Amino acid sequence: MSLKENQESLKDILSSLPHKPGVYQYFDKNGKIIYVGKAKDLRKRVSSYFNRDKHESGKTAMLVRSISDIKHIVVPNEYEALLLENSMIKEHQPKYNIQLRDDKTYPWICIKKERFPRVFPTRNVVRDGSEYYGPYANVKRMKGVLEIISKLHKIRNCSFNLNSENIEKGKFKICLEYHIGNCLGPCEGKQSENLYNQSIDEIRKLIKGDVDQLIYADKLKMQQASSDLNFEIAAGIKDRIDLLSGYHSKSVVVSSTIQNVDVVSIIADDVYAYTNYMRVVKGAVIQSHSVEFKKKLNEASEDILLSFLAEMRNVFQSEAPEVISSIELKAAWEGVSFHFPQRGDKKALTEFSQKNARFYMLERQKAQEKVDPDRHSKRVLKTLQDDLRLKEIPDHIECFDNSNFHGSFPVAACVVFKKARPSKQDYRHFNIKTVEGPDDFASMEEVIFRRYKRMMDENMKLPQLIIVDGGKGQLSSAMKSIDKLELRGKVAVIGIAKKLEEIFFPNDSIPLYIDKRSESLKLIQRLRNEAHRFGITHHRNKRSKNAFKSELLDIVGIGEKTAKELLRLHSSVEVIKSLSKEILMKTVTENQAEAIYKHFSEAK
């Protein structure tokens, strides 16, 4: 099919799309699905890809050029569209769809679909009608749930087929589990299916977090047993209540006023999104799960979070009537209200969820750094480029700091980072040559000029970013040299003021404040602190050398090595002054001893 014929065919498909919610699929010329999307209005959404002269994302433009066919599926509502989209992305893994990245196989609690159901942990979800609860990111919590189940209910753990025919024929015999009280013997008909299923119903409630309901029911039973003078039964029920209360108290309690809600949050950059889901029942968090997504077409945070939420509600079998989120979600799901709280307990809950997403992000980033060390530096530098609005990614950054002691021994330091890592072989020290007294501004002007004049003369590659330790004054001084060298506009220059961590730009009196948790600000601070450390080290060495030189190195015939040996043996210059030639000759030569003795004798 020619390009013109393909365009005509797509126009016909677009005109026939309904104004209904649904899922659409894009196919390439080979008939392979390359993208799956959802829509409240199929015709409007799909047409929007073809009605633009230019797409914001180059990847989106490439996707549109690759489309040869479009198919769609109409669904009753937006929520069903999200669920269908998620399942189709998992099945086909289209090239241009966002990728779910979760390298862990989390465990689930399974209630097996069988007569006298077993309850056990598993990492393999088999769609055979069995009930699966989870996934449990915290394995310890899952084990806690299973432990409380085993203490409260006598559930079988054998894998026998306990149909009525096998039990009637007596195919199975009770085992040790029955004799030690862990099972009530359904294999021999010693426990009815009805009583067993009552236990399973209570287990479902326990797993779902409906502990208050179970405690309330047990209290009624305990009161009735006491009224009937069945004190032994009442004591057994009291033990059950204590176990349930102890288990419930270990849940993360957020607020007694929040009864049944789902909480979602997201942290996203240009490439990755990190989401967290929390299930809150009776004021306690009973489930929490975090996921990483890799973006493909610069997907909006709202779209990612809604898809994630639909998947989590399906996985956790949540029917919560309320969803609270860290960003505003404009969705219309039947029987569900969406809230974006600004204050109070619900706001605190979204912050708690976002903290979990942030911890998960850091965990994933650390794991990826071990596999791909460059990924971390690329992400940080891309963030820095965005925060500072730079034309290019600053792979090569240089930072300057001045140091002096009451105007004496003025020095400067230049540290170099390449790909967000120190390049120590490129570090440079500068002794200030043209400035008298403590003048940081003039010192910065001199050092910047000397550094980049030499780099230009030697045809060295210039950095993409220069950082000056200081505020507007130091930055203005640096820009004088940048202008002399005609580098304005060719190299980005910023200043950082220590007190409030303000970022200053040339000819802009209003500073930029970067989020103190931002990796880009941490990189700038690391450069500034490294420049300060490197400069202070050089400054101390220079002061120490000059102080040492003024006392012993002025004596003809005494070098640094001899002076150090004298000080090591005699502790100070004052002691050396009082020594006789004979004592000095035990450390130095006769001529050197004569020179030292004569020098200090004349100075008296």
CATH architectural grouping of the largest domain: 2-Layer Sandwich
CATH superfamily (homologous) name of the largest domain:
UvrC, RNAse H endonuclease domain
Q: What is the helix content?
A: 40-55%
Regions with pLDDT < 50 over 5+ consecutive residues? none
- Please tell me how large the radius of gyration is: 37 Å
Characterize the main sheet: 8 strands, mixed
Report how far the terminal alpha carbons are from each other.
Answer: 106 Å
> Could you report the average pLDDT, rounded to the nearest whole number?
82
Number of strands: 21
What features would you describe in this structure?
The protein folds into five domains: 3-97, GIY-YIG endonuclease, CATH 3.40.1440.10; 108-208, no CATH class; 260-369, Nucleotidyltransferase, domain 5 (2-Layer Sandwich); 384-542, 2-Layer Sandwich (Nucleotidyltransferase, domain 5), CATH 3.30.420.340; 554-603, 5' to 3' exonuclease, C-terminal subdomain (DNA polymerase, domain 1), CATH 1.10.150. A hairpin with a 2-residue loop joins strand 15 and strand 16 (421-422). The radius of gyration is 37 Å and the shape is extended. The strands form four sheets. Strands 14, 15, 16, 17, 18, 19, 20 and 21 form an eight-stranded mixed beta sheet that branches. Strands 4, 8, 9, 10, 11, 12 and 13 form a seven-stranded mixed beta sheet that branches. A three-stranded antiparallel beta sheet has the order 2-1-3. With 604 residues, the chain is an alpha+beta fold. It contains 20 helices and 21 strands.
